[in-house]
């Protein structure tokens, strides 16, 4: 059965290997990091959380498998529906969203009671929609009314709605959008206008938005940690202790002590726990996996036969790697504290599902690339065979 499933698995084998490795690392890291809850509430909580996380990891791999079997061209049509749903969903989140960890970023699903972060859904929707729009408008890509305004409007609206409650995620998504605009041949002048508009919106949200005090506090704590109260720099301080005590090869799996003090060690700061237990070596391994992922995705982009596939793979791969390095930068003290998870590693149900769908779409594009290359090879072989049959012998002079 396993061999049959493996034979049906298509797409870049290196990306599949990275998915499996990150999933295994995730299970081990979350098992260790949830020790903080076992320390406070009892071992039953730890086992419950690990079981829940394991279910989501397996569900995520299932979503990757299903998504990669679906022809990526179908996502062009799906993207319109996703964008239609995204705007009201983000508005609903701002007004009625559940307040978790000092931020209204979550929507509770009726009946089952689970919550999910709408920005994860919005990221997938905007990237697929941008890939579709940029592909569709290539012939009139310089036309401001027909191309620039619809594309700019979708970026700015989604950015603004996410930024009010989740500025870090909005900034990363905005950066990915700009990269897609560049790849999609939008003129530099028009991109500069988008950046200027985004900057104005950013300043408005940062200085006048409902979470301005939180943003200012995090920036000040990052720039001047020595002038802040210990409670404001507590997360960063505990992460630095984890890094400092990890050494080169770490304390060993399950031997973290900072998991008992660091808030959210199984999600936002899981990279700090990994370094504490696996050392600098473990941190370098994680970074290398994401860099290899980016490299393999770039190869897919350059080989994709269709513009939509190339833009789709580029946008999703940029989103995943930028998010990964943003999370790691926060954990090692190179950026202010944010609520960005480490893709496929951090604990989080909806984040795991939407990340898995993104991986599945990338693999779907990769599958198309492989089939296209195989088709060309088959055609070339058929031509050679045909020449032999009809007696067409190359002339040698």
Reconstruct the topology from this structure.
Elements: H1 2-8, H2 13-33, H3 35-41, H4 43-69, H5 74-96, E1 98-100, E2 103-108, E3 115-117, H6 118-136, H7 144-163, H8 167-183, H9 188-208, H10 212-223, H11 234-246, H12 270-303, H13 307-331, H14 349-390
Antiparallel strand pairs: 1-2, 2-3
Helix pairs in contact: 2-4, 2-12, 3-4, 4-14, 5-6, 5-7, 6-7, 6-8, 6-13, 7-8, 7-9, 8-9, 8-13, 9-10, 11-12, 12-13, 13-14
Enzyme class: transferase
Membrane topology: Multi-pass membrane protein
GO molecular function: lipid-linked peptidoglycan transporter activity; peptidoglycan glycosyltransferase activity
List the defining traits of the structure above.
397 residues, mainly alpha, three-stranded antiparallel sheet, 3 strands, 73% helix, 3% strand
Describe this structure in words.
The protein is mainly α and 397 residues long. The chain folds into 2 domains: 11-69 and 228-370, no CATH class; 81-209. Helices cover 73% and strands 3% of the residues. It has 14 helices and 3 strands. It has helices at 2-8, 13-33, 35-41, 43-69, 74-96, 118-136, 144-163, 167-183, 188-208, 212-223, 234-246, 270-303, 307-331, 349-390; strands at residues 98-100, 103-108, 115-117. α6 runs antiparallel to α7 (144-163) and α8 packs antiparallel against α9. Pfam families: FTSW_RODA_SPOVE. Belongs to the SEDS family. FtsW subfamily.
How would you describe the shape?
A: globular
Radius of gyration: 23 Å
State the distance separating the first and last CA atoms. 57 Å
Element order, helices and strands? HHHHHEEEHHHHHHHHH
Given helix and strand content, the structural type is mainly alpha
Q: Total domains, how many?
A: 2
Helical content stands at: over 70%
The beta-strand count equals 3
**Uncertain residue segments:** 381-397
Work out the helix count.
Answer: 14
Q: What is the averaged pLDDT score?
A: 81
């Amino acid at each position: 059965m396993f061999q049959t499933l493996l034979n049906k698995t298509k797409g870049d084998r290196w990306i599949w290997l990275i998915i499996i490795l990150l999933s295994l690392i995730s299970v081990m890291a979350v098992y260790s990091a949830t020790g903080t809850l076992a320390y406070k509430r009892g071992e039953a909580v730890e086992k419950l959380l690990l079981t829940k996380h394991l279910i989501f990891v397996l569900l995520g791999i299932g979503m990757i498998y299903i998504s990669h079997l679906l022809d990526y061209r179908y996502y062009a049509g799906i993207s319109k529906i996703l964008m239609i749903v995204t705007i009201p969903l983000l508005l609903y989140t701002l007004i009625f969203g559940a307040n978790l960890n000092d931020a209204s970023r979550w929507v509770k699903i009726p009946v089952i009671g689970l919550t999910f972060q709408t920005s994860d859904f919005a990221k997938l929707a905007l990237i697929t929609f941008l890939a579709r729009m940029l592909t569709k408008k290539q012939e009139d890509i310089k036309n401001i009314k027909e191309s620039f305004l619809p594309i700019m409007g979708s970026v700015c609206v989604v950015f603004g709605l996410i930024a009010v409650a989740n500025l870090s995620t909005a900034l990363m998504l905005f950066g990915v959008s700009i990269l897609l605009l560049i790849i999609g041949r939008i003129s530099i002048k028009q991109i500069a206008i988008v950046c200027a508009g985004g900057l104005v919106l950013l300043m408005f949200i940062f200085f006048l938005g409902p979470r301005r005090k939180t943003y200012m506090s995090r920036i000040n704590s990052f720039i001047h940690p020595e002038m802040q109260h210990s409670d404001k720099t507590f997360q960063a301080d505990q992460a630095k202790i984890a890094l400092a005590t990890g050494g080169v090869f770490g304390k060993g799996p399950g031997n973290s002590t900072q998991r008992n003090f660091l808030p959210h060690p199984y999600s936002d700061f899981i990279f700090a726990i990994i370094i504490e237990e696996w050392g600098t070596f473990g941190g370098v391994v994680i970074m290398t996996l994401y860099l290899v992922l980016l490299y393999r995705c770039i190869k897919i982009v350059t080989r994709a036969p269709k513009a939509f596939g190339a833009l789709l793979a580029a946008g999703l791969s940029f989103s995943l790697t930028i998010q990964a390095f943003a999370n790691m930068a926060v954990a090692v003290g190179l950026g202010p504290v944010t609520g960005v998870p480490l893709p496929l590693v951090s604990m989080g149900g909806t984040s795991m599902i939407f990340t898995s769908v993104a991986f599945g779409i990338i693999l779907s594009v990769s599958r198309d690339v492989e089939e296209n290359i195989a088709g060309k090879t088959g055609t070339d072989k058929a031509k050679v065979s045909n020449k032999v049959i009809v007696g067409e012998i190359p002339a040698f002079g």
